[in-house]
Request: fold
Amino acid sequence: MPYVQKLLASLLPTEYRPTRTELEGYRPLEAWFLNPRQVSKSIHDIGHLTRVLILQELLARILLDSGSVPHFDQEALRWAAVTHDIQRKHDYEAVLRNNQAHGIRAAEWVRGRFPRLYPHVSRETIEHIAYINYWHDVRQNAMIERATHRPMTPELKVFKDADRLEWVRLERYILPELRRQVMGGWLLTARDLQYEVSMRLVPVAEALFHESRRKEGYREQPFEAVMAVAEELKILQASKKEE
Reply:
């Protein structure tokens, strides 16, 4: 995909892009999900979490490189990417009721499980992961800031954009009947993105989604398939080989 690679080159030098090695330690597991047996059939599957992991990392680095944002808690962003949708009861939970219940459950899961699963992760980072998970699916920024009595963190803003970039897949998977009957014809689109540069990443998100879904072995090993495609598209730079 020459266009995608040319676009990426205009946004972030290759040497500043993430590597697969840097993201390997954030691999999502089926056992984390509320309904592990349904994961492979869901549009909020491990592939989705992995693509959000890659997209948030790319967007954060673009913003850092441009000087738009001075610092990110990238550990919190990475863990939020792979845990934010693991407590969904079904794909259309938030769409049907416009609520944040699955985000609240994901926040509680992180607070309850992470101290045991990942004792090296600080309490401060765990709270930041939980905060991102809790609010990630609330569309109105003002509502979040009123409820928390503080400005949204840069991490939540970046995360919301990365997750929204994955909305490119919804036009294919949300049933037209559901759009008309439940959503009144409304469908989430990339127009809801907050950062101008995020709009430019829409073709990257589309390519990552479509190519990873077509990748051989996606259903059996979605994390590996998405990572391989991200390397092929040059979203990730090649990991340095050990000498």
Q: What stands out?
A: The chain is about 55% helix and 0% strand. The radius of gyration is 17 Å. The CA atoms of residues 21 and 242 lie 11 Å apart.
